[in-house]
Amino acid sequence: MVQTLLTAIMVAGAYYLKAPQPSQALIPTSMPETLADYFIPEPSAVTMPDFAAIRDIQLKKQAFFDFLQPYIDAKNVEVRQQRLRLQLIVARIKVGVGLGHDENVFLWDLARKYEIKGDDLHEAGFLDRLMHRVDVLPPSLVLAQAANESGWGTSRFAQEGYNFFGQWCYTEGCGLVPGNRNAYSSHEVRSFTSVEDAVNSYFRNLNTFPSYQDLRLIRQELRQDSKPIDGISLTEGLGKYSERGHEYIHDLQAVIYKNNLLARDKPLYP
Questions:
Q1: For strand 175-176 and strand 188-190, is the pairing parallel, antiparallel, or unpaired?
Q2: What's this model's pTM, rounded to 2 decimal places?
Q3: What is the pLDDT of residues 242-259, one digit of tens each?
Q4: By CB neighbour count within 10 A (0-12 exposed, 13-18 middle, 19+ buried), where does 94 fall?
Q5: Which of 2, 137, 140, 256 could disulfide-link to 32, CB 3.0 to 4.6 Å?
Q6: Are 110 and 130 spatial neighbours (Cβ–Cβ below 8 Å)?
Q7: How far apart are CA 111 and CA 105, in angstroms?
């Protein structure tokens, strides 16, 4: 359905580039999916599974993946809705159709969330930078990193602070102090109030931090080549996520292949 809608956008865009008609509906406004399609329980209703108590390795992995994926899928739906609405707005700007108050507020809010600075919300470069960041992350990638960083959900940071991705913070009391932290360090492993918050923060990190610009460039190239956005390709842009560099990338790819995680990706086409 997503592909059909985006095809419609391209066709409509081509037509209006030839003959703009501001009085008519420019392109479809319906979204491909809604967050209502995913059941995300209230944080107070979530009980963190005791993954360490699951002795069977395959069952542990299955439980871990099944626990996290609904949160990942829901976040990707949110991002896809943002991206599609952004595409609709960009198409309107390109053909000279004025934007309403709600559309301008949406652009401003999106730029704030994705940390894009610019004085002119309608400037082509600003919109290109925003489009570069407002994009999905394949479940295979997210699950592999979560498994690697949290020891399949068994780490103290995952169990006590919902931190599945090894994210640090630097304000006293912002998280849990690592047991092996030396006397000259001040970092803590960030604590979250829910799994949803942890996933949101992870998406924000990969979509905004300068360290992961390579990942975003790989994703952009996949879109330009009309190829699926897959976890194996995007791991190549995570060399700065860990001090282990290429060894870390190799480990993530091994988790993806050994656990057939590519099968958990919905086809994420441009």
A1: antiparallel
A2: 0.81
A3: 989 999 999 999 999 999
A4: middle
A5: 2
A6: yes
A7: 10
